[in-house]
Amino acid sequence: MNAHRPLAATFSLLAIFSTLAGSARAQNVTTDPVGAITITLKGNSDTFVSLPFHRPVALETQVQSITGNVITVGASANLTTSQFVYAGTQANVTSYYLQFTTGNRKGMFYSVTANDQTTITVNPNGDANLDANVGTGDTFRVIPYWTLNTLFPNGQGINQSGGFILNQRKSAIFFVDNVSSGINLSAAASYFYYNGTPSGWRKAGDNANITNDTPLYPDNYFFVRNSIAGDTQMTLVGAVPQSNYTTPLTTIAANTSQDIFIGVSVPVPVSLANSSLTLSGVFTQSTGFILSQRGDQLFVFDNTNATINRSSVATYFYYNGGANGTSNGGPGWRLAGDPNGNTAIHDNDLIFQPGNGYILRKKATATPQTVIWSFAPAYLP
Hints:
By secondary structure, this protein is mainly beta. The protein is built from 2 helices and 24 strands. It has helices at about 130-135, 150, and strands spanning about 10-20, 30-40, 45-50, 60, 65, 70, 95-100, 110-115, 120, 140-145, 145, 170-175, 190-195, 200-205, 215, 220-225, 230-240, 245-250, 260, 295-300, 315-320, 330-335, 360, 370-375. The strands form 6 sheets. Strands 4-10-7-8-9-6-5 form a 7-stranded antiparallel sheet, with no helix packed on it. A 5-stranded antiparallel sheet has the order 3-16-12-13-14, with no helix packed on it. A hairpin with a 2-residue loop joins strand 5 (about 65) and strand 6 (about 70). The chain is globular, with a radius of gyration of 21 Å. The two termini are about 35 Å apart. About 40% of the residues are buried. Residues about 1-25 have low confidence and may be disordered.
């Protein structure tokens, strides 16, 4: 049988795994490999974008102790008070996040809210068991977020706008909604680059404030809407992630299915099998093939066709093999409406592509639940 052919990617991978120098102001930082990606942003179209590389690491050290959301580090970290707290004056730097590289929270990231010479305070963002799952000796990194103006410096890569009203915005960056419950959610906010005086990024509906330093999160996607003809290109050069890809998957409201916007921050293609979605027990399996029998679903999008308000082009679900575990070819990933029939298994399809975005639709649960999805990219030891 023929596996479903992966969608053509809209990027070209320019380089990967060369040497990246550490930040000049960083302490205890090892060098990382570096990669580059160019993503085509089609004209008169929405393009889903995720970030497979991160900015240079600012700190790499280990936990000495943790109480609640306050992490104590050793004196060798050489921290300066508020070093990782954005004050609105740092050039091309925004707020920072802390990402664990070992332990029970390996790959999880948390925004830094404060630091002094020996401690770093993070926003647990609902992780009530953070200190119970982080122990002495766990290693972590502190990394600056990508921002609108570090990703698109001075509006490079998109069409700049000459005014504030909707028909004057030639390109816009839409942020997905990560806090509302339900499915088919609208965008949470949009931003555009104004090339007047003073120039800079603006949030739609707020013309007065420049928003250059608005952060972009590493585990979800945004989409770029070019409202005029002609493609543009976004080039991203950054460090290759050296930890698991890890993200929480949450049903926000009881008895309500939930769309979760996924950006897999890994710079190599990942198959459904190697994503560990089912091995880690986070993806509710399906008992059959019709919609009412499906558990969680994964929606895939094709950036190569120009369209506004992009719809998915493929839906995947994991079939458990039926009551006896062997029906219709047994357990495995299936493609909804597969022309090859219900027995065609798609475990080895390279569905997760660098730079793209996906929607994972969690089946409703009786009470809100959070599970953690985590896997190690193939290039890590």
